[in-house]
Design brief:
By secondary structure, the protein is of the alpha/beta class. It is built from 16 helices and nine strands. The chain folds into three domains: 67 residues, 434 Repressor (Amino-terminal Domain) (Orthogonal Bundle); 160 residues, Rossmann fold (3-Layer(aba) Sandwich); 62 residues.
Length: 333
């Protein structure tokens, strides 16, 4: 054998052609996985949405290792993809926006005056007139204003612990006097205001009779000893309860520098709120105003207006008086 023959290259066999990638509705497994991933859908989320295949089974399918019925899994994932696309295309729920109604403007004014004069103020009204909404917005806009919404589980320690957290003061459970002294020290010389919403929950009763107002007394002490502006927002019943037991509540009553019972929202308030949310049809606004009179507050009007917007969206109709009347069928008045 010659040298030329010895070094002659041998033919190299070509590798077998790769199989064509499997397509699911024109999409490869990798592309389908990327589609879900880009929209924040993890394997755990897909498994929960499906309810038929586990996270591990889906992982095996996407990686080409699934030993079961691949076509069934692929069709299920395509179903989930169509569901997600359809959900994303539906109109979003109508978002509530803050509107400076006549009630809101009056609440703003009271809060500003009370802060400047370091008053203990009481704002009351029937539910749904916008006092809480306005107070929250005022607190959001103004540094140094601390807003707390009480509930039926609140006691004096609940309020003290909350305010300690807001002011970064150490709270000592079971040592309210020590905690109060620390709060007074932290509040002295500060331009601040504390708003207690649903303050009627700070009155503790037994069989309809006031037994304790320690939560209110805590606020009075901060007002007296640290010059903090305190604003109580409540139902009218709170003031009536205080008047009925002056031997218990006399110190609170004597400190109230501002007391205002808010009126019913006006038709202009309804029109202003409706316009801010895209309801401009005159008939729809009239219908909302008429129902406002029956309900006595704006909350029901707001709920019905949101329902009207949703009905108009899903049925591709304008928001008119007819749609508003339909919306009120779903709202308790």
């Amino acid at each position: 054998m010659t040298l030329t023959q010895a070094v002659q290259p041998q033919p190299v066999e070509s590798p077998p052609p790769s199989p064509a990638p499997e397509l699911w509705d024109g999409i490869t497994r990798q592309a389908l996985a990327a589609w879900f991933r880009e929209r924040g859908h993890t394997l755990s989320r897909l498994a929960a949405l499906s309810g038929r295949y586990s996270k591990g089974a889906l992982s095996d399918w996407f990686n080409g290792h699934y030993l079961g019925d691949n076509a069934a899994v692929g069709n299920e994932l395509l179903r989930l993809k169509r569901h997600i696309e359809q959900t994303a295309s539906e109109p979003a729920a109508a978002q509530d926006v803050f509107v400076e109604t006549s009630i809101a403007k009056e609440v703003f004014t009271i809060l500003k005056v009370a802060r400047l004069d370091q008053d203990l103020a009481l704002i009351s009204s029937l539910p749904g007139r916008g006092k809480s909404t306005a107070a929250r917005e005022y607190a959001r806009r103004n540094p140094g204003v601390y807003y707390f919404e009480a509930d039926d589980t609140c006691c004096v320690n609940t309020v003290a612990r909350w305010l300690c957290g807001e002011l970064h003061v150490t709270y000592n459970h079971g040592q309210l006097d020590l905690t109060l002294s620390r709060l007074v020290e932290a509040c002295q010389g500060r331009d601040m205001q504390v708003i207690i919403d649903q303050a009627e929950f700070l009155i503790k009763k037994y069989k309809g009779t006031i037994r304790s107002i320690k939560g209110l007394e805590l606020m009075r002490t901060l007002h007296d000893r640290a010059g903090v502006s305190i604003v109580l927002i409540a139902l009218p019943q709170l003031y009536q309860d205080l008047l009925r037991r002056p031997q218990i509540s006399g110190y609170i009553l004597s400190r109230i520098g501002i007391r205002r019972d808010l009126p019913m929202p006006t038709d202009d308030d309804v029109a202003l709120w409706a316009a801010a949310h895209g309801i401009t049809d005159a008939g729809a606004v009239r219908e909302l105003s008429a129902r406002k009179g029956a309900a006595g507050h704006l909350r029901t009007v707001r709920m019905a207006a949101r329902k009207a917007l949703r009905l108009a969206q899903v049925n591709h109709r304008p928001v008119d008086a007819t749609v508003v009347r339909e919306a009120f069928q779903y709202v308790y008045v």
